[in-house]
Every structure is written in C-alpha cells, then in structure tokens.
From TrEMBL:
Manganese in keyword set: no
Record GO terms (molecular function): magnesium ion binding; phosphoglycolate phosphatase activity
UniProt protein name: Phosphoglycolate phosphatase
Pfam families documented for this protein: Hydrolase_3
SUPFAM superfamilies from the UniProt entry: HAD-like
InterPro entries: HAD-like_sf (IPR036412), HAD-SF_hydro_IIB (IPR006379), HAD_sf (IPR023214), PGPase (IPR006382)
Family, similarity comment: Belongs to the archaeal SPP-like hydrolase family.
Native source organism of the sequence: Methanolobus profundi
Catalytic activity from the UniProt record: 2-phosphoglycolate + H2O = glycolate + phosphate
EC annotation from Swiss-Prot or TrEMBL: 3.1.3.18
PANTHER family associated with the record: HAD SUPERFAMILY HYDROLASE-LIKE, TYPE 3, PHOSPHOSERINE PHOSPHATASE
Alphabetic keyword roster: Carbohydrate metabolism, Hydrolase, Magnesium, Metal-binding
Length: 226
C-alpha cells in the first residue's frame, strides 16, 4: 500500500534531545511528495512556526488534538474543553505549588512545569475529575480532556483533507502520540520512544530523535510506502 499523507510529532521526533530542530529530518520531510501534518502538544503559534520553518505548511494538530487548522490563515477549530481542565488545575493548586506554562496561548488544556508528584496528582483527579487526565510528554506536564487527543485530531484532519486516517503514516515518540499511531494506517516510533509506543509500531527506528525520523523516511521511501 502507498500512503497518501504523513502526520508527525515535533519535540523528540523531529528535534534532537535538546529540542533543536534536526535539519536532516526537516530536509527529508519537505522533500516528500505527500502532505505532512504537524501534530504537537504545543500551542498553535509554535506549531505554525515549525511548519513554516520545516517547509511543510500548514496542516496542524496542536494542543494534543484540541486545536486543528488546515491552512495558515484559516480559522482554527478549537475544542470547548478548557473549563474542566481549569477546574482540575484549581483543585490541584490547593495541594501543590504549580506553575503554568504558555497560559496566554493555551485554548484547550493546561501545561505545567514538572515540579510535583504526577502519580499522586493522577490519583487525586481520578475520582473527582474522571473526564480529565494528566500526561507527561517528557517535555512538560499536560492537564487535558480525555475526549481529545492526537488520534481524534487526526480523525478531524483526515476529514478536512478528504482522506481516511488509514491513509496516513504517523511518527511519534511519547504517550501523547499513542492514539495517533493507533489511528494511522502505518505507525513509526523513533528509537527514543516510550516502550509501549514501540510495541504498537509497525516500524521502530534504530536512530533516535530527529535522526530516527530521517531513518524512518528513508525506510518508507525504500519500501514504496510513501
């Protein structure tokens, strides 16, 4: 099967460990003859800058599926889920000294500095806020709605592009990429990915971070998959 599009995470997937962009991964992505969708837990303005700089503008899944846009100047689709996340944050703030990140730009979730006991916080939220979850992407802590993720974001993006999710190759490295890889037709985990992501992947690169993405693209091209 030849896949019609590619959806890819940013931090830890097209960057190096220090979050610097892998120029090799960027070059290979922009050279592809199929659309490339940026899918990130970060905010939309960051994702737009990434897409522009990489040269794959501008189909974007931001805030872990909470914000979706299919063109640089188009109006984004924003999920109405921030209120339950704010309530969960206010509750946890009575237990921990928590620091918000990017709060001015966040529309659908809350991102926190990793300076508290995440496992304990998950237990505290489990019964009181069952519709909310906390995830650790290795770069930040996210309080997000269980209703949305990069998988639901991919479903909407595929619809906007006139494709099926099975038409996509997905590449990622962390817990917030799980549903996206499960939803796609072909799943790739880079070498630094969490083990549970590697377990469901169709291909796991030997190289890590952006070098792993470059290796994966070479593999996909060599097999005629894209």
């Amino acid at each position: 099967m030849k896949y019609k599009a590619l959806v890819i995470d940013v931090d830890g997937t097209i960057t190096h460990m220090d979050r610097k962009l892998s120029l090799e991964a960027a070059e290979k992505l922009r050279s592809l003859d199929i659309p490339v969708v940026i899918a990130t837990g970060n905010v939309l303005c960051y994702a737009k800058a990434v897409a522009k700089l990489v040269g794959v503008c501008c189909n974007i899944i931001a805030e872990n599926g909470g914000v979706i846009v299919d063109g640089f100047d188009n109006e984004p689709i924003v999920s109405d889920v921030i209120h339950e996340c704010e309530e969960a944050f206010e509750f946890l703030s009575t237990k921990y000294d928590m620091e918000k990140l990017d709060s001015v730009h966040r529309k659908t979730e809350i991102v926190l500095r990793s300076n508290f006991d995440i496992d304990e916080a998950k237990e505290l939220l489990k019964d009181r806020f069952p519709g909310v979850e906390i995830i650790d992407t290795h770069f930040a802590i996210h309080i997000k709605s269980r209703k949305i993720n990069k998988g639901t974001g991919l479903l909407k993006m595929a619809e906007l592009m006139g494709l099926q999710t099975s038409d996509f190759v997905a590449i990622g490295d962390s817990v917030n990429d799980l549903e996206m890889l499960e939803e796609a037709g072909f799943a790739v985990a880079v070498g630094n990915a969490d083990d549970f992501l590697k377990d469901i992947a169709d291909y796991v690169s030997e190289a890590t971070y952006g070098d792993g993405t470059a290796e994966a693209i070479d593999f996909l091209l060599s097999k005629g998959l894209i």
